[in-house]
Amino acid sequence: MSEPSTIRPPSGCAVTIDQVSKRYGSNTVLKSINMAIKPGEFFTLLGPSGCGKTTLLRALAGFHGIDEGRILFNGQDVSRTQPWDRNIGFVFQNYALWPNKTVFDNVAYGLRIRNVPKAEIARRVRDALERVELRNVEARFPGEMSGGMQQRIALARALVIDPPLLLLDEPMSNLDAKLRVSLRRQLRDIQEALGVTAIYVTHDQEEALELSDRVAVMQGGIVQQLGKPEDIYASPSNRFVAEFVGAANLVDGVLREGRFELKGGGRIEVPDAQTDGPATLFVRPEGLRLVDPHVAGVLPGHVASARYVGRAWVHEVQVSDDEILIVDVATRIPNGTPVGLAINAPRFLRAS
Ligand SMILES: Nc1ncnc2c1ncn2[C@@H]1O[C@H](COP(=O)(O)OP(=O)(O)OP(=O)(O)O)[C@@H](O)[C@H]1O
């Protein structure tokens, strides 16, 4: 093992992932990953099950090694540094609290192994619990507490050592929807107040978009797109990203002289389209408007179905035998009604 190299800058640390690859036998689960995460950034690894996001997070923590590449904290190579010398806070999906230890002992653990004096431990445990808005719970046991409280204790335990880097592996996935939303906000407030760098793993696109400064969308051990939530949502770089980060209409066809001709028939005016040729139209449901089908340049169709999702009625509009587009509308329109579709901001992906 190399000499102890506890990395402890005053606030959030910069994380560089440089050409990192990881194999399990013949299965390469991380393929030359490159990322530069800024100090104090809230950065999310988003992707479906098996894409490699947990493997990457655990490699950052030092829980397992990497086969190629380097991991740098504030410019310092930690690829071979043991987990306890990386000085990171880690929050697990299942909380990983010790059931037979009190809340105090759970939170104090990281300080005790660092030989912090007793009085300071008491103060820092109290401060960490207050930070997650838990008071008078030190003597209780995790099993007596709700899932949301247990996750806040796990967060307090990660933060008590004052880490420059906080790693979180699907920490909300066992909680109900309402609690997830309130905990998200609390987590983001705490992260910003402390200035700690956070790297968060999730398969929940809504969570990723709401929480993050930047998101890396992963699939098959590769980063498909890395950017700000609004850019990834509005301008996905390919079909996978378009479909993974929200509802998407993706329609194959040909661009010709300011019009998009759908493969299955029908056309729509797209005066700003730059190039002609085969293309895939990409538009979110909220980017389509229902208009009079007789207006020139709109795509005619009829309402095939509608379902209520709270914020809107999601309508399916049949525009050809094998093409259905989805559009958000404030009120329900009966099935079979002839409608026209107009596009607010069409974008085109390379043809597939
Ligand atoms: N210890 C291991 N031994 C062998 N293969 C593994 C091991 N851990 C993970 N894998 C494989 O590596 C790939 C990536 O797994 P990983 O857990 O990183 O994905 P993930 O995106 O986090 O998915 P999930 O959300 O389901 O945890 C998967 O194919 C998985 O089966």
From TrEMBL:
GO terms for cellular component: ATP-binding cassette (ABC) transporter complex. InterPro entries: AAA+_ATPase, ABC_SmlMolc_Importer, ABC_transporter-like_ATP-bd, ABC_transporter-like_CS, Mo/tungstate-bd_C_term_dom, P-loop_NTPase, Transp-assoc_OB_typ2. PROSITE patterns: ABC_TRANSPORTER_1, ABC_TRANSPORTER_2. It comes from the Bacteria. One of its GO terms (molecular function) is ATP hydrolysis activity. Keywords: ATP-binding, Nucleotide-binding, Transport. Gene3D superfamilies: 2.40.50.100, P-loop containing nucleotide triphosphate hydrolases. One of its GO terms (biological process) is quaternary ammonium group transport. Transmembrane segments: none annotated. It holds the Pfam family TOBE_2. Residues 15-245 form the ABC transporter domain. Belongs to the ABC transporter superfamily. PANTHER family: SPERMIDINE/PUTRESCINE IMPORT ATP-BINDING PROTEIN POTA, SPERMIDINE_PUTRESCINE IMPORT ATP-BINDING PROTEIN POTA. This is ABC-type spermidine/putrescine transport system, ATPase component. The lineage of its organism: Bacteria, Pseudomonadati, Pseudomonadota, Alphaproteobacteria, Hyphomicrobiales.
